[in-house]
Amino acid sequence: MITKKPTLEKLSPSFGSSILVKQHVDQLDKNNAYWHFHPELELVYVDKGQGKTHIGNHLSYFNNSQLILIGANLPHNGFADRLTANGSETTVQFKQDFLGNDFIKIPEMQSVAALFDRAKKGIRFNIETKKVVGPKINNLMEFGGLERVLKFLEILNYLATTDGYTLLNADGIALETNPQDSDKISMIYKYVNKNFQDQIPLDEIADVVSMTVPAFCRYFKKTTGKTFTQLVNEYRVVHATKLLNESQMSIADICFECGFNNFSHFNKQFNEVTGKSASQYRKEIKHIIQ
Questions:
Q1: CA angle (287 as vertex; 282, 290 as ends), nearest 5
Q2: Per-residue pLDDT averaged across 202-211, rounded?
Q3: Are 166 and 126 in contact (CB under 8 A)?
Q4: Which of 52-61, 65-74, 122-131, 251-260 has the lowest mean pLDDT?
Q5: Distance between CA 256 and CA 249 in Å, rounded?
Q6: In what order do the strands lie in the sheet with 82-94?
Q7: Around Cβ 191, how many Cβ atoms within 10 Å?
Q8: DSSP class of 201
Q9: H helix intervals, the chain
């Protein structure tokens, strides 16, 4: 059942602060895991957690930890399904001009400005960067005022100069949206998230957003850069990576559990999304998911 439609999320740093730092420990409020966007950039460090990464057009599954930077107005979902023992999720939300309109333009901030530009596509940092930066992000909670800002600038400088990262929407599509688009896309993603294991006819999903099938297909492709069938297949493959990692189910059983009704089609889609076969993915899982 689709409840309140999320659009623009308005963030308010605490009084006297230009950045908003939040930390969740043990349990996350799943009500906050919805499709949303905001003008602030968002740096997220998950330490010992599991969940889906859904940023713009990118969809994947992570296990254990994750460090990502999301650009301004780039739609995304909440990240952690659950936190493991001693796990936490720390987020830092800030505007590009949080130090004033002109500060980002000075020569010393050139690499940071380039980082913010890359963040329009979403950035995931590798394990070496996580080891260095993750604890620093967690420690931001211990500081306030100018000291917190200086510590945060150190983090940004490191992220701006490392080459240990991957662009999540590297196909050139940086999905920036407006409240009306976010409204409809949120309803579509919620419906797919709930029903991807079943067949979803186009007339059924078009009806969810009160559109004709041709209008829906045009709208969805224009807004997301992919077809609706591609989206559903991506959800199924992401769920398959989760089962390959967390269960002992056979690959054939996983195929049907995820909503595919043809094993060869499952293998083809899995390869297209991940770049490898399901059996190869399972063999390499400890190296792929860090």
A1: 110
A2: 95
A3: yes
A4: 52-61
A5: 11
A6: 19-25, 82-94, 41-55, 58-70, 123-125, 165-167
A7: 16
A8: -
A9: 110-118, 127-139, 145-161, 179-195, 202-208, 213-224, 228-246, 251-257, 263-274, 278-288
Two tokens, residue 138: 């967690």
Q: Indicate the pTM of the whole model.
A: 0.75
Q: List 64's β-bridge partners, or say none.
A: 49
Residue type for 279, please? S
* Structure tokens given for 37: 């966007």
3-state secondary structure 236-273: HHHHHHHHHHHCCCCHHHHHHHCCCCCHHHHHHHHHHH
Confirm if 143 and 23 have CB atoms less than 8 A apart.
no
Dihedral over Cα of 269, 170, 172, 206: its sign: positive
- What does the alpha-carbon distance between residue 21 and residue 93 come to, in Å, rounded to a whole number? 7
pLDDT value at residue 226 = 86
Q: What is the pLDDT of residue 288?
A: 47
